[in-house]
Structure formats: structure tokens, C-alpha cells
Amino acid sequence: MAIALILGSSAMLAAQAPRPPGSTRTDLQRHDLSIPGWETIQARVDFAPGANFPAHRHPGEEIIYVLEGILEYQLEGQPPKTLMAGDVLYVPARVIHSARNVGTTQGSELATYVVEKGKPLTEFAE
Questions:
Q1: I want to staple 76 with a disulfide (CB 3.0 to 4.6 A). Which of 25, 96, 109, 125 is the partner?
Q2: What is the distance in angstroms between the CA of the first residue and the CA of the last residue of the chain?
Q3: 65-76 pLDDT, tens per residue?
Q4: 22 φ/ψ sector (left φ>0, alpha ψ -120 to 50, else beta)
Q5: What is the SS3 assignment for 104?
Q6: E strand or H helix at 56, and its extent?
Q7: What kind of architecture, by CATH, is found in domain 23-125?
């Protein structure tokens, strides 16, 4: 699948590219791992009611913990998964996925990325 846009360079954590309307990401921490060339990034992602984050992938794993609301995730090749506060989801490296708030209140997740250092954090798919 062709990549339409590359955003979120790990070299530019503070200068994040614009996000789709209705979603915000607040970076909480970033650390090099003991494995050379790898790092972890932890962020809070908030979704307004009805907001979605389009199909994208990461250069490593994403571990999601839903903090509030009702969020639906679509991972390539799998049926949609609807999660609520306290639910978790593992997204394997480079798997195309999307997320949307299917509830009537704000939805929020704690996203932990274990990714290759120096690669763009997010690649949007066509």
C-alpha cells in the first residue's frame, strides 16, 4: 500500500505535525531502550465524539490502554474491535490500523510505542 504522507518524525517530538480534526496527542515521555536503535514513546491521545484517526502504521509496536469513552479500532485483516475504559489492545509493528470515537463523550487512550529510533512515528496510508 502506498504511503500518502509521513508525519511525526521521532527527531521532532516537540514539533508535531497537525493531526486530523477532533484528535490531540500529548506526549508524556520518551526513552531510549537497552536495545540499540529502539526507543519507547508514551502519549495520551484524546478523541472528540465522532472523531477518527485514519489508516496509519508505526515502525514498531503500539500498546493501547483506553482511559475513557468508547473507541473502535480497525486493524488490517481483522474485524473492528470496540473498547471501553480499562480495555487494552496490541497493534503489531507496521500493521495498518485506524481508530474512532463511537461514543457520545470524549474518548482517550494511553498509547505506548516501542519503535525504531529515527524513523517517522506515524505513516498515513492511502
A1: 96
A2: 7
A3: 999 999 999 999
A4: left
A5: coil
A6: strand 52-57
A7: Sandwich (2.60)
- Prediction pTM value: 0.83
The three cell numbers of residue 23 are: 484528535
Distant-in-sequence, close-in-space partners of 46: CB < 8 Å, separation ≥ 6: 23, 24, 25, 26, 106, 107, 108
- Per the listing, cell 529515527 goes with 118
Q: Would you tell me how many other CB atoms lie within 10 Å of the CB of residue 79?
A: 6
What residue ranges do the domains of the chain occupy? 23-125
Q: Quick one: 107 exposed, middle or buried, by C-beta within 10 A (0-12, 13-18, 19+)?
A: buried
Q: How many CB atoms lie within 10 A of CB 94?
A: 12
